[in-house]
Amino acid sequence: MNKSYISIWNEALGSWVAASENMSARGKRSKSRTVAGAIATAVVLAGVSGTAASAVIGTPVEATNGTYTGTDTDSASATAPDSVAVGAGATASAQGTTAVGGASLADALNATAIGIQATASGEASNAIGWHSMASGSGSNAIGQYANAAGDWSMALGYEADATNYMSTAIGTLAAANADNSVALGAYSVADRADVVSVGNAGAMRQITNVAAGTQDSDAVVVSQLRNVSTALGGGAAVNADGSIAAPAYNVGGTAVDNVGDAIINLDGRTTQNTSQITSLLNGSAGLMQQDASTRAITVAKDMDGTVINVAGTAGTRTVTGVAAGAVRAASADAVNGGQLYGTAWSTAKALGGGSIVLADGSISAPKFSVGGSTVYSVGEAVTNLDVRTTQNTEDIAQNTTSITNVQNQLADGTVGLVQQDANTRDITVAKDMDGTVVNVAGAAGNRTVTGVANGAVNASSVDAINGSQLYGAASSTAEALGGGSTVNADGTLSAPSYSVGGATVHSVGDAVTNLDGRTTQNTEDITKLQTQVGDVGTQLSAAVQYDRRADGSVNLGAVTLGGGQSTGPVILTNVANGTSQYDAVNFGQLSALQDQVTDLNGQVWNLGSQLSNVQPGSSNSDASNGSSSGGGNDAVVNAAAPGIGAASTVAGAGAAASGDNATAVGANAAASGVNSTAIGTDSQAANANSVALGQGSSTDRDNSVSVGSATQQRQITNVAAGTADTDAVNVGQMNSSVAQGVQQANNYTDQRINATNQAINDVAKNAYAGIAAAMAMPNMTPSGPGKTIVAAGGATYKGGSAAAVGATYRSRNNKWLVNAAMSVTSTGDAGVRAQVGYEF
């Protein structure tokens, strides 16, 4: 029969000795109680006392007269401080070790071996079960032949095998043979590092009731895969084996079967679009382009079409920023208002007679005093000129064809940019948009507009004219004026030089005045002759004869028809056409002369119309119709300029640009700030570098752009999305930014809440699993003395679960109970419990 022994203190020997638990103490019964108390104290000290102690329960010994002898050599051994050995051949040879069971071995620091031939050879290891082995540091082997060889490994189940660092094998014959691997379930094999296996190559398992993953490293479920396939579109679906059937996309006419190829296709086309858009933005592509080297801007230079139209929904537009074009016979450059003003001013000066350039750019009619009467045209003055004036008239008449040709050439041109009609090939600039100004000025200043076709020249024309047209008009005017007048390089006319009556004059007005004086003198002389001829006629009323002078001599230079007897003018009929200087002219010749004079007068007025019907410009660099005036770096258009700053521009009745480098366009527009711009009726730009756009708009600070006033605001529409830090943003961008900010805030809040919830859930899971571990720990009592019971338990609590195994031994004297157990929770935590109890 097996016996249990305990270590007791031998007072005679002064040492601990082995004693049967059934033996009696010497002396009185109270002494027996004392011995039992000492035994219990020794056992407790072996487990918890800070003082080095050991406890051995092994083969029986006998004590005779103070001498203790074992009956056999098979005994438990606890040779290290704080060690416990229970069972035949049990060995606890390292500090803090526990060996419970026959031939059990715990030979590493703080190791525990429970079960027959259980071996715990790893530091702080636990081996529970028959032939269980825990050889890795911190390892746990629970179950018959369970093996935990890796450091911090766990083997739970019959022949469960965890051989590598932090490996876990749970289940009969489960094997975890790689670092940090987990094998769950009978026959499961985990042979790769950092994996969890729930089966083996020949017998796989499904993992069911898995919640949908929420973090990047969470497992996903089939429903989530279906969501992925739905998001992929293109017919993508989850196959029966869990794989995803490839989608089918049609991208740009190309069939692709994966998202990567679709993105590559879209990226290529997007890149191409971006490149083309970039080319349009930097001027290297499109109808309007800018040369990267010369910085010259061209419009549809590689396309056909003969018309550029800048008119929009609000009507015609002013083309501004036009540099002075070349003015010569072969020039096709657009000319600006400053150039046309120079031509108009020089023309008015050449005409004389008080002619000036009016506010609308037209030239006022001259005022000549001829023969005591006032005339308002060159034609009327010419009727009173002498033969040399008649010669001039003939010269002017010869230019009629030239003027007509110029008119025909001017009638062909219009103005416009940017778009070209596919059928008519006409080019238009923003024809479907509002706005009244087209500005070609750039960062380097005004630009010359070249390639300008001849514009129409008539009373209703709004076409731009080119340099050659202006040169032609100026040239024909110079030719009509005669007197050596020529067209200067800047398009103005040089003053003519006439030699009249021995004097040199430099305007038609001065010439007319000279001729008028001499003609008046001739008239007085003729009157005197007529008086003399009248006297002779009275005497020779019945005959045609020479008149006589006052002294009675014959005046061979005068003949009075009818003599003194005639009561009225006498008709001289059958008069042949005069052919020489002193021949009489007949009515037919006089009528022809009158027609020529009338035609000349009409030509002069037509010329004035040709120079006054082009759309007005707003600065000295604008294309203009002659209704603009300016000088130097300033310009005044259609208005008397109440205040002109240096290098300023004014356009509109009552407009004022009193600030330097200021621009005022529109009736009563005022630009008083330095570098300010006011565009629109009653617009006010009073601050430096400010811009007021639109009727009634006003600025209230420097370096600002205003499209309204404090009481009348405007929306700015069709604003492209800003790309640079200083660009304006549109409502779409703002809404997107707000939505993005809100989304980011929501995402951050959701992440923090999810993290908090996850932390709480982790704590709860660990707590629930810990409760389940406490519930699962077996605490069964052997049925009788000397009996050992091994039990396993499992428990679940609010989703947390645990499995536990344990062993309990009852001493033969029925006084002692020794219990050890180990649990493993669903969260991967393990716990070990050891208990010793004494009953009395």
UniProtKB/TrEMBL annotation:
One of its GO terms (biological process) is protein transport. Residues 206-244, 319-355, 449-491, 573-601, 715-755 form the Trimeric autotransporter adhesin YadA-like stalk domain. Residues 1-49 form the ESPR domain. It comes from Paraburkholderia youngii. Residues 782-840 form the Trimeric autotransporter adhesin YadA-like C-terminal membrane anchor domain. Its main location: membrane. Residues 78-102, 106-132, 134-160, 162-188, 671-697 form the Trimeric autotransporter adhesin YadA-like head domain. Pfam families: ESPR (PF13018), YadA_anchor (PF03895), YadA_head (PF05658), YadA_stalk (PF05662). Belongs to the autotransporter-2 (AT-2) (TC 1.B.40) family. The keyword Cell membrane does not apply. This is Adhesin. The keyword Mitochondrion does not apply. GO terms for cellular component: cell outer membrane; cell surface. InterPro entries: Adhesin_Head_dom (IPR008640), Coiled_stalk_dom (IPR008635), ESPR (IPR024973), Pilin-like (IPR045584), Serralysin-like_metalloprot_C (IPR011049), YadA_C (IPR005594).
